[in-house]
Input
Amino acid sequence: MGELFKLLKDGNKPSLLAAIVNTIIALLKGGAFFFTGNVAMFAEMMHSIGDAANQFFVYIGSSLSKKAPTPRFPNGFGRLVNLVCLGAVIIVGILSYETIIEGWHHIQHPTESTGVAITLSVLAIAIVLEFVVLYKAGKEILHEVGVKGTLLSPLTTSFANLSRAKPATKLVFMEDLVATSGGILAFVAVLISHFTGFLQAEGIASIMIGIMMFYVVGKVFLDNARGALGETDEQMLVHIAHIVSENEHVKDIQKLEVIKEGEYLHVEIIIEIDPKYTFAEVDDISDTIKELILTQQGVTDITISFDEDDGIRTWTQHKDERTVLKTRD
Output
């Protein structure tokens, strides 16, 4: 039990914060829907329930993925967070379907909801809270990729670095981006319905929110399916090849793989060196290169082997300086 609490302590903090905030929001929206019967509020309630459940699952998965390898699972549990995310999107998928069906029903049979002041107040609170979580998730993305920015960078630069973020942080950012957008959409729909009498606006908003949720489902599913299978991090692969090639003892790189293991990167490399080096010298070269690679963002495990230089250039991948990452201090 002590190990479990320790692992939970090291879980993805943005997902835990998002789960707590979305639970509170779901309760507020549920209460508002109960008193007003507003279909746009129903869509937002379902969205918040899905996000809260998703993010709790992701938090637990990200925590357990940090468990050390065991004799039964020698490769560790890094990909567990991908498997948990795959399971979590099923929940969002079901809620997305229910949201769209409810919206379509309201378009066919529009009914006027009551308690507009309650609905708008709850939506306004939800939008602010969702925006706070979105901003913090954006900051976490920049922190994970080692990028410093301005006050607005979590809402701008984070999009450009989203693909390099940890799976859990990426999921939180995407879900809260849709949640914030959906909240604004529902807010506008309620205003239109109340002041123009176009009651179908709430149903249309519900369908649009459901479609946005389905987009998150598809995006998260594909990202984590690749992660569960073991996807190559192309950008880090080029970066590691670049910094290893700069070592004066390295003649060539015979093989290099950089595989994503959940939130971490596993590196396997075969280096060609001059056969004149002694075993002790090769050991020193190995220690130097390992230390260098392990300082790179996200790298936690490396397998390094050596072979004698055959005089034939094997590593011919183009080293575009624009794809080379900055080495961490």
About this structure: Residues 318-329 have pLDDT under 50 and may be disordered. The chain has ten helices and three strands. The CA atoms of residues 101 and 163 lie 32 Å apart. The radius of gyration is 24 Å.
